[in-house]
Amino acid sequence: MNDTRIVVETFAGPGGWSLAAARLGIARLAGIELDSAACATRAAAGHRTIRADVSRYPVKHLAGKVRGHVSSPPCTQFSISGKRAGVPLIDVLAVGIGDALGGRERRRVVRKDMTAVLNAAGWPHEHLPRAQRSEAISRAVRSASLVLEPARLIAAAQPDWVALEQVPGVLPLWQAYADGLRARGFSCWAGVVNAADYSVPQYRLRAVLIASREHAVGCPPAPCSDQRKGAHLWGDPWPSMASAIGWGATHRPAPAVTAGGTATGGAEPWPTRARDMLAAERAAGRWIPHPGGDRPRITITVAEAAALQSFPPGYVAYFQGNKGARYRMAGDAMPPLLAAHVLAMAAGVSSERLAEATDMTATAETRGVAA
Predict the structure, then answer these.
(1) What's the CA dihedral at 17, 270, 87, 90 to 10 degrees?
(2) pLDDT tens, 264-285?
(3) Residue 43 and residue 52: Cα distance in Å, rounded?
(4) 23 near 346, Cβ under 8 Å?
């Protein structure tokens, strides 16, 4: 008998998880997303989407209807590129995760405790004017508390499997999820993986949680490794930046593509340190020049950012919104190739089907991103 239950993706973004699920044959995935540009992108790509605030979405009606749950909650407060409000909040949030997995609605209490912690820590700067600091703390608490939302859905829907992803700083919270889920009969694995190990042409570290009631799970086997340090390492070499977009570093993946946003509001897919690293590769001769001529400032287009995230050729045409929104979606997305390996482990997809799903190889010319 066919399983008519759905897979629910929260904070669904432009479709990295959804694309991977479709290629794996994981059917009936519905994404919940609030951002208008991301919703329009998903609609253009044909992904089923509910436009809603995840934190206000009623989850009780999902009981018995959900086969799997996928989520990449916002990471701003845990990212090393942000103000890192999430760091002093780890213990409070870990307790909140346990409560939420147990079906106890304590989000308001958790937010109150988080506010007290940030006030006591003098975050973000104790010399800020009181009103400005209060507003910053309020924004940080609202954002960081979204990491509780998968637990709320899991408690209500009781899915068979779960896959969560975020920046490495979130790993202690994924471990809190793992502790709570193991107590409820799940096999769990939580750890940090590098997207480049999964054929993504980008050095991108991500914290991942995989859990299943149906089978044992572990770290997804990686097909690639950094063979610059010796041919004794496993698998194929990491894909290079140049292999993905036709120019750039030839001996290593690109640095992690970020969501952008400079002090003046412009799109900036790489921070200064990453651009300096690429400049060093160019100076060392491990470089293919840009077809239009190398520029003093190393930047990429939205199409190139999407290719470095392992979106297939042409997918960037679905990206909607202004330039900043499209850069943000590219930088925030779960890389589809990494998503496929994580989903295969979580949902018990065969290695043969995974191999078919991850056969996304294409030259820079066919990707159409070099110009």
Answers:
(1) 0
(2) 334 567 888 898 999 999 999 9
(3) 14
(4) no
Under 8 Å between Cβ of 364 and 370: yes
Q: How many residues does the chain have?
A: 371
Provide the pLDDT for residue 42: 98
| Domain region containing 299 | 225-335
In whole angstroms, give the CA distance from residue 371 to residue 369. Answer: 6
Q: Which pair of tokens denotes residue 198?
A: 């999964």
Question: Which is nearest to 30 in space by CA: 45, 10, 44?
Answer: 10
Residue 357 CB: number of other CB atoms within 10 A?
24
Is 67 a member of any domain?
A: no
pLDDT at 306 over 90: yes
Q: How many CB atoms lie within 10 A of CB 56?
A: 8
What are the φ and ψ backbone dihedral angles of 54, each rounded to 5 degrees?
A: -55, -40
Distance CA 287, CA 268 (A): 21
Distance, in Å, from the CA atom of 103 to the CA atom of 155, rounded to the nearest integer, reads: 5
Summarize pLDDT for 87-121 with one digit per residue, the tens: 788 999 999 999 999 999 999 999 999 999 989 88
Pairing of strands 236-237, 224-225: parallel
107: in domain: no
Residue 235 counted as domain residue: yes
What gap in Å lies between CA 74 and CA 71, rounded to an integer?
10
- Give me the residue label for tokens 């991977």: 20
| 356 is a domain residue | no
Buried b (16+ CB within 10 A) or exposed e, 307-339: bbbbbbbebbebbbbeebbbbbbbbbbbbbbbb
Query: Given this model, what pLDDT does residue 96 score?
Result: 97
How many structural domains comprise the chain?
1
